[in-house]
Amino acid sequence: MRSKVDMGMCLERTELEAVGVLAGYPEGGDVRWCNPVAVIDSRLIEGGELFFALQGERMDGHDFVQAAFDLGAACAIVSREWFSRQGASIHGEGMRYLVVHDPVKALQQLAGSYRAKFTGPVIGIGGSNGKTTTKEMVAAVLAEKYCVHASKGNLNNHLGVPLTLLGLRSCHEMAVIEMGINHPGEMALLCSVAKPDFGFLTNIGHEHLEFLGDLDGVAMAETELYRDVDSRGGTVFLNELDARLAAAAGGLQHVVPFGAPDGKLHARHIVLDAEGRPSFTLCHEDGEIPLTLNFAGRHNVHNSLGAATVGFFFGCSPLEVRRGLESLLPEGGWKRLEVFEANGVRVFNDTYNANPDSALMAMKTVCEVPCSGRRIMVLGDMLELGESSEEAHRSLGELVSRLPFHALYTYGGQAAGSCRSAGSKCRGHFTSHNRLLELLKQELEAGDLLLLKGSRGMRLERIAEGLRMERIQS
């Protein structure tokens, strides 16, 4: 909508009217939405956008329709119920609407229609852990050879996927779409919108067990991506080290495996530097590539193997694979083993989210990197684990007691169980960010290494921000 260049992908009037009723447009006139820019936050409007007025738990987008038009929105997609209650005030000059039963479903339907116009390959990436990093790696590798459209950040849910698809342009040669779920049936919904030609699941882990039940439930929900791709004759990139994924891939038509230590593509000589960044040798059929990643953790070597497998599949050269992986940098505010120094203390900020698997990976990383001082961990609650929560927190505390950590501090409610099971290594449980921060500032010394890990709802990034801002007493 912002540009008249590249008119190759447009939503036609008939497609819009299949979703709802147009209002404010000339009757019988030519209505086409070309190169649409869709937003659900009126503050992002610069001029020419489509504003989808979504109703959430705390806010209703319909309250911002007028603001959207004031900022230059080209059209507002609104509910029939809201539209029918309004008076003449909503029919001013330039105020155009698509009136629908449900703006969320309209967003998904329009994105599906728009995606159908795209002829390049669409790669769907999901899984329990590491999907955002893997998506970034895959996109970076492919971008060395192709014009790639990829999900921004973690726009991976029932809203993020259609918003991403509406960003496709005819100049793009392929798309890399992140697909995240936390309830049964959600992957099927995302697939119905994105219709991926290729499927990539990172792993099956202890994610959202409150809603998915157990690991088998997680596997059933995530591997809907495999079944959907296979139903259209597509190809699956298989992490063959994951037993549940390997079982789900049995019988699929087209499978490209990766990850086996003796496979065609494998890593050797892995070494982590002081910030946890791995250097290694990537071995492939035609030779070896020396690589250094800018993402902390040995587990990211495995993620890079998956990205390299996708790259080689689509004809990228070894040099293009290397350039793509080595040039990729974590975005600001990454919060996934993000490393910074605060007065001589190395802080590993892994507060984006947490489950038992990602916590274990983070703990292994900080125990492997060189450290001249003490290793200290702050653990917040791991949320949405359902009935397994108590056992998961207890097990993590026991693991801290066996690993080379000097001390553990816990925060929240459920993490108190980790404190108890860690024994003498646990130096306190907290329910106040400020009190925890003040204690850390007193206890930490130059040379120490601090790991912050917890679910997003624990807001442990406040501890990281406090340590960045204030001098630690030595």
Describe the protein in words:
The protein is an alpha/beta fold. The chain has three domains: 10-102, MurE/MurF, N-terminal domain (Udp-n-acetylmuramoylalanyl-d-glutamate--2,6- Diaminopimelate Ligase, Chain: A, domain 1, 3-Layer(aba) Sandwich); 118-327, Mur-like, catalytic domain (UDP-N-acetylmuramoyl-L-alanine:D-glutamate ligase); 338-469, Mur ligase, C-terminal domain (Protein-Tyrosine Phosphatase, Chain A, Alpha-Beta Complex), CATH 3.90.190. It is 34% helix and 22% strand. It contains 18 helices and 22 strands. The strands form five sheets. It has a six-stranded parallel beta sheet with strand order 9-10-8-11-12-13, sandwiched between helices. A hairpin with a 2-residue loop joins β15 and β16. α5 (131-142) packs parallel to α12 (299-313). The longest helix is centred in the middle third of the chain and has 15 residues, at 299-313. The chain is globular, with a radius of gyration of 24 Å.
Features:
Udp-n-acetylmuramoylalanyl-d-glutamate--2,6- Diaminopimelate Ligase, Chain: A, domain 1; six-stranded parallel sheet; 22 strands; Protein-Tyrosine Phosphatase, Chain A; 18 helices; six-stranded mixed sheet; UDP-N-acetylmuramoyl-L-alanine:D-glutamate ligase; 474 residues; alpha/beta
Mean pLDDT, all residues: 94
Q: Rough shape?
A: globular
Q: Spans of 5+ residues with little confidence (pLDDT < 50)?
A: 1-6
How many separate structural domains? Answer: 3
Strand content: 15-25%
In the CATH scheme, the class of the largest domain would be Alpha Beta
Largest sheet: 6 strands, parallel
Q: What share of residues is helical? A: 25-40%
Q: Number of DSSP helices?
A: 18
Label the CATH architecture of the largest domain: 3-Layer(aba) Sandwich
Walk across the major sheet and give the strand order: 9-10-8-11-12-13
Q: Radius of gyration from the CA trace?
A: 24 Å
SS elements, strand count: 22
Measure the end-to-end span.
Answer: 56 Å
